[in-house]
Structure formats: structure tokens, C-alpha cells
Amino acid sequence: MRSSLSNPSGLVMIGIDEAGFGPMLGPLCVGCSVWHIADWKSGDPAPDLWQLLGKAVARSRKEAGDRIAIADSKKLKGTGTKTHPLTHLERGVLAMLGGKISTDNNLLDVLSSGAGGILPPGELSGTAHAWGKMPHAPDLGRLQNPDSTAPLVSDENRGSLPWYTLPPLDLPLANDESQLRLDSSVIRSAMAKAGVSLLGCRCEIINEIEFNRIIQPKPGQTGSKAHTTLAAIGRILRSLLLPDGDQESLVTIPNPAHIRVVCDRLGGRQSYTQAIERILPGFSARMLVESPEMSRYSLVLRDEISTSPFPETKISFQTESETVHMPIALASMIAKYVRELAMIRFNTYWQAKMPELKPTAGYVTDARRWLDDAADAVDRSLRERMIRKA
């Protein structure tokens, strides 16, 4: 999606979060939501989008009533039997995307292109990506080249993970389409009154094979599980901050005065200077704050690369960030919803082979139970490809 803002004032806020960092089975998903707050001025506190859009959204399921809960995805997935566990998570994601998503392939089309956002009816379209053609994050060696283009997952990889080639899964799973369209209309109205725009949404998906490839030690480097999330964050930010780099920008904003990138903290890491400079070639990261709760940096463009359209950018990594910044909460929901759909595909594929096989969410303890239960159906080669190594 390419959106244009004629007013250079205000704030562009980019929220990024992941789902699926810990599991043994299934993909790692990194979500992103990009917002513009028109009336924000330098020196103002971080905008509270829950407050600005309070007639349409709420911070939690408990507070929501008829409004849409936008919150940490882990708190939105249900555990009871009365309603579908994805009801609230799905409602928030699909309503924010305009209420017009009909299949999981369509959803991935939209999130791969960056076209996800509150748009008038009929303007939502994807770029022919599907589960079998998931864009993936390049390895860290390739991140040193700002002109590199991350390829789509290879034909060999697609065939090696057959659950991604199943027919499309109809959406919504647990919500009424007409209600989602109404929800979307309410959100659009609240945004218009508040001077807030959702410019785009994205989800980077690192499948099991790519996950294992990224964590393999490279010459002169040590392998690290954190490299997977950092690689996906880098791809998203390069597409936003360096549109002349490895891919087209998700949004085009003439001369914005203020850009803020907010991310959930990556484990216990407190210093991000080297990581930022590795995933964003051409930028220097100047440390502003490093504390147990937050690490914040100013990004300075180096002279040797082309001018970025974003002259002033700050990036922060914060604990419990889904409760502080709504853009991160929505990113969390997007990543979680996409991963849940991936696991539905996974379980559908294997239950067709073994109907008695109990589904798995892919987390370590239950994944080991599932691998034992499915031992007769999974050959050694496929088992090797599908298990994440860290």
C-alpha cells in the first residue's frame, strides 16, 4: 500500500511485535502496524491511541463492551469452550483491515504487500502472495547489502512443508462478516474525528526451514535465536525507512517531521546499537536511554547512502510494550492471528493422515507430545525439516 500525507507535521508511529518465538513447531511471525497522528507536535507525550479512538476500541476484553479490544494477543486468545478461542483476536485484526478478508491466503496477500489498513470498500487488494510464497527475512550476512532483495521461499521449501500448500482456509473463523464491516465503519469514523490514520499493516513470516537457516552460525558470527526476529524487523524497517533499498516502501509520506518506531523488548537484551546498525545498513544508532525497562535510540543517516525520506527517526525497545502503545498491541494481534492460522493448517494436514491425532499449538512440551503421537506418520526427513532447532 502506498499512502500519501500532504501535511508534513504530526507523528508517524510504527509498532512491531512477534508471535511464535518460543515454539518448537510452526512459523515465527512478526507483525507491524503503521499509524499517523496528525495533531501530534514535538515535545508532546507519546499519543494514547486507545484514548483518541476510545469510542471504537478498548484496552482489554473486560473494558470493551461493544467496542473492539486491541491488546496483547496473549490476553485476547480465549481458553474456554463457550466461544471460539480466536473470536476476539480475529475481530480486532479483520476489523482493522477493513472487514473484507475472505480467506487466509487473502489475508497473507494483504499483509505481505503492506496494504492492510482501514480503506474504503473495494480498495483492498494483495500482491498474489500466499502461504506457499511467503516472503522471508534474509540472513544477517545479506543484511549488510542495502540493495539486496530477499527472495520468496523457494519451490523446494514450499514442497518440504506441505501444510502451507493446502486449499485456502475460509475467513472469518469465529465472527460475522456483516458485524466486521460495521466494526470497520465505526473505526473509520473514530479515526476521522481524531485525526488518526492506519497507514498499513504487515506480517513477516519466517517458516520452519528459514528459521533454522537463519540461526545457523555464519563465518565470524555465532548463531542466535534472536537473529530471526531481528532479521524480520530489519526487513520491515528497511522497506519503510529506505524505500530505495531492498523493496518498495509500505507507505510514502512526504517530509514527515517525526518518526517513532516502537518494538517489544527482545528477551533480556538491553543494548541494541550493534543490532540496529546491522539490520539497517546506512544508519548509525545513537543511544538515548538504556535501562531495564526501555532502550531508545536516535537513527542518523550516514552520508554515503541515498537520502532517506524520513529525516528524524527514533526507535525504542520496551518491556510490556503492548500495554503502553496501541500500534504494538495491534502488531502483536496480527502476528498471533497469522501464526494461529498457520497452526490450523498444520493440524488439518496431519489430522487428515491420523484422525485421532490431537492438535498442537507447537510449544515445546506439547510439541514433544505431538511428535511422539505422530511418530508413525512423520518420516525422518520431514521431521528434520519441521522441527525448529532453537
Provide structural commentary.
This protein is α/β, with parallel strands linked by helices. The protein has a single domain, classed as Ribonuclease H-like superfamily/Ribonuclease H (Nucleotidyltransferase, domain 5), CATH 3.30.420. The protein is 34% helix and 16% strand. It has 13 helices and 9 strands. The protein has helices at 49-52, 61-64, 73-76, 87-96, 104-113, 155-160, 177-194, 208-215, 226-241, 273-279, 326-353, 364-373, 380-386; strands at residues 11-19, 28-37, 57-58, 68-69, 196-206, 258-264, 283-290, 294-301, 313-318. The strands form 2 sheets. The protein has a 7-stranded mixed β-sheet, sandwiched between helices. A two-stranded parallel sheet has the order 3-4. α2 links the parallel β3 (57-58) and β4 (68-69). α9 crosses α10. The radius of gyration is 20 Å and the shape is globular.
Mind sketching the topology for me?
Elements: E1 11-19, E2 28-37, H1 49-52, E3 57-58, H2 61-64, E4 68-69, H3 73-76, H4 87-96, H5 104-113, H6 155-160, H7 177-194, E5 196-206, H8 208-215, H9 226-241, E6 258-264, H10 273-279, E7 283-290, E8 294-301, E9 313-318, H11 326-353, H12 364-373, H13 380-386
Parallel strand pairs: 1-6, 3-4, 6-9
Antiparallel strand pairs: 1-2, 2-5, 7-8, 8-9
* Main sheet specs: 7 strands, mixed
Number of helices: 13
- How many domain modules? 1
User: What is the molecular shape?
Assistant: globular
Mean pLDDT equals 83
N-to-C series of helices and strands? EEHEHEHHHHHEHHEHEEEHHH
